[in-house]
Amino acid sequence: MNVNIQFKKGVLELCVLVLINRQDRYGYELAQAVSKHIEVAEGALYPLLRRLVNDGYCTTYLQESTEGPPRKYYRLSDTGLEYMTALTTEWNEFVRNVANLIEEGTPNE
């Protein structure tokens, strides 16, 4: 099933925050982790990561890699943790409300 691209855009930020909260990650690793659950272009991830850093939700650091140049890792800031927690609460409520609406179905005529 091809999920509407707007759905993906809307939830990508939350997915990235949750994954970074589990452990610090670099960009390609994040793309791979997200892609296990939803199809996403790697190129869509980097502008989002830049924005998360600019907004103070994530910090970055470089770490040497045995497979090439140093990698830029992303870490959730305290503000980012608060933001992720709030987004998660909003998301769960939204999903619950949409599920309820769908379960109600259409009225009998």
Describe the structure.
This protein has about 110 residues and is of the alpha+beta class. The chain has helices at about 5-20, 25-35, 40-55, 80-105, and strands at about 25, 60-65, 70-75. Strand 2 (about 60-65) and strand 3 (about 70-75) form a beta hairpin. Helix 1 (about 5-20) packs across helix 4 (about 80-105) and helix 2 packs across helix 3 (about 40-55). The longest helix is centred in the C-terminal third of the chain and has 27 residues, at about 80-105.
Question: What attributes characterize this protein structure?
Answer:
3 strands; 109 residues; alpha+beta; three-stranded antiparallel beta sheet; single chain
SSE order, as H and E?
A: HEHHEEH
Number of beta-strand segments: 3
Mean pLDDT score: 90
**Order of neighbouring strands in the sheet with most strands:** 1-3-2
Query: Structural class per helix/strand content?
Result: alpha+beta
Largest sheet, if any?
Answer: 3 strands, antiparallel
Give the N-terminus to C-terminus distance in angstroms.
Answer: 30 Å
